[in-house]
Design goal:
6-stranded antiparallel β-barrel; 6-stranded mixed beta sheet; alpha+beta; 26% helix; 19 strands; single chain
Length: 353
């Protein structure tokens, strides 16, 4: 029993010593890791560089219609609601049509009566209505005026148009907005019936500095980023440029963007980034450029060593910047992260990007 206890004590001491030794090794490895310059690298390359001009704007539907009640009648039914998507020709609301049906039937009777009067007028002139094409134009004009036939035709056409207006119909496919009308009320209580928005594509108007406006062109590509969904980037193009400079020294441009995601809506505030392609430029990631002694520097990674290079940055956008060809060569590996506190010829450990 005594020997067993001694063995257990020895085992515990041995295990404790091993654990302490392992902890010391791990601590040493951690200190060694922290002392290293951990960096992420990329490459300088020749590619198309995109100049970027940023602005702000508000989305407006390319097609937007305010539908109004054109007759003062009672509303029988409202068959849609706000936010509902409708198709072209779909009936949105129906008005009481009793008055308009009566007016149309009366116009039809008036037309029949005037047709008989026209025939009597022509017979009195020695002609038959069946041979109206042979009637001289001056004589036919007199007969039409005396019989009231032309007025009767116009009255019937007008009555038919008003009868059709008892149905409010969608002129194109879109989404209903601003609907307030309720059934069993007079149409005169409402200024408008609703607004119909075609949300397939939107237009955005945005200001550009006078100095940058000269670089804009029709169909130039751009990106629109809604502030409500800052992870969504929508590709579009410039559709119009106003050739006038306003009092603030800005030029107004318009762009069209598709609503492929279905998430953008009328009136949404957006950021606009115009992109002007400049081919065959030496570019590096923007994060590769840092400051040393108030000059711009890029660290080139060679044989796990950081080499300090002064550079001249020509242009930059949100992701890349362009350099002179004598500063950095295409294909050279540059440090894009972990370069803030680096020094010349500092050893580095590359991490995968």
């Amino acid at each position: 029993m005594r020997n067993l206890i001694i063995s257990l004590i020895c085992l515990a001491v041995f295990t404790s010593c091993n654990n302490k030794a392992e902890e010391q090794k791990q601590f040493a490895r951690m200190n060694s890791f922290e002392d290293q310059n951990i960096v992420v690298t990329g490459f300088a390359r020749r590619a198309t560089f995109f100049r970027e001009f940023e602005s702000n704007g508000k989305l407006k539907a390319v097609r937007r219609a305010t539908l109004k009640f054109e007759l003062d009648e009672e509303i029988r039914s409202v068959d849609v609601k706000n936010g509902q998507r409708v198709s072209k020709g779909q009936v949105l609301s129906v008005l009481d049509d009793i008055n308009q049906k009566y007016n149309f039937e009366r116009a039809c009777r008036t037309l029949d009566k005037s047709r008989l009067q026209l025939e009597d007028a022509l017979i009195g002139m020695g002609y038959d209505l069946k041979d109206s094409l042979s009637v001289p134009a001056p004589m036919m004009k007199i007969a039409l005026i005396r019989s009231g036939y032309s007025d009767a035709v116009s009255e019937k056409e007008l009555a038919l148009i008003k009868l059709h207006k008892t149905n409010i119909v969608a002129p194109f496919q879109g989404v209903v907005a601003g609907l307030e009308a309720k059934p069993f009320n007079r149409t005169s209580q409402y200024k408008d019936f609703c607004t119909l928005i075609d949300d397939a594509s939107f237009e955005v108007e945005f200001p550009v500095l006078e100095s940058e406006a000269a670089k804009l062109k029709q169909r130039m590509p751009l990106r629109v980023i809604p502030y409500a969904f800052d992870n969504d980037t929508i590709e579009g193009y410039i559709s119009a440029i106003n050739p006038m400079v306003n009092d603030a020294g800005m030029v107004l441009a318009k762009a069209v963007v598709p609503n492929n995601s279905g998430r953008i809506t009328e009136g949404m505030n957006v950021k606009v980034i115009v992109r002007d392609a400049v081919p065959n430029q030496l570019i590096v990631p923007k994060s590769a450029v840092t400051l040393r002694q108030e000059r711009k520097v890029v660290f080139v990674c060679k044989n796990d060593t950081a080499h300090w290079r002064y550079v001249n940055v020509n242009e930059e956008n949100s992701q890349f910047c362009t350099l002179n060809g004598e500063d950095i060569k295409p294909g050279e590996e540059v440090i894009v992260d972990g370069n803030f506190n680096l020094s010349h010829l500092a050893p580095v450990v590359k991490m995968s990007n």
